[in-house]
Amino acid sequence: MENNQQSPKTYFRMLGIIHLGLVLGVLLFGLVVTFLIADFQRPNIQSGFADLFVYLVPGFVMIGIIANNVVFRIKLNAINESADIKTKMAVYRESSIIRYMLIQTPAQIALCAIIVTNNINFLVYAGLMVVLLIIKRPTLRLAISDLNLNQQEKSILENQDSTIL
Q1: What predicted TM-score, i.e. pTM, was given to this entire model?
Q2: Which three-class secondary structure string do you get for the chain?
Q3: Calpha distance 111→5 (Å, rounded)
Q4: Which residue has the higher pLDDT, 87 or 49?
Q5: How many CA atoms lie within 13 A of 109 on its CB side?
Q6: Could you tell me the pLDDT band of residue 136, with boundaries at 50, 70 and 90?
């Protein structure tokens, strides 16, 4: 089995690529929905789906915002204080990806609601989630803050020649 070691620079580059892919996925889907699929001249407000989405989409957005914070904190709090930096960074990557998916999913649901109802108002919810996803971009400073690292662990992360995974 190959031993694949990662430096902090490589670690955050890979996590950043995953994050960028999720952001671009929502943005591109939003562009396709807005300019190619939806017919905003004829909104489908009479259907039962339109009434349902008026409540479902904001509900999913609220659940996504709350769940991304709660799940992220639960997973990070489960890390043992005596765990080494490699374990902490592995859990951080897993937690971050789950966090991004919990933010991205309500945005995709809002965009699907636009397809079904032709109601452009749902674009506001998708935009809100994209902004939140962009704010949660993975950085070294954010990881240090989220993980409450001690000075030794901070110096390992800040040293680009060290191995963290």
Answers
A1: 0.87
A2: CCCCCCCHHHHHHHHHHHHHHHHHHHHHHHHHHHHHHCCCCCCCCCCHHHHHHHHHHHHHHHHHHHHHHHHHHHHHHCCCCCCCHHHHHHHHHHHHHHHHHHHHHHHHHHHHHHHHHCCCCHHHHHHHHHHHHHHCCCCHHHHHHHHCCCHHHHHHHHCCCCCCC
A3: 39
A4: 87
A5: 23
A6: very high
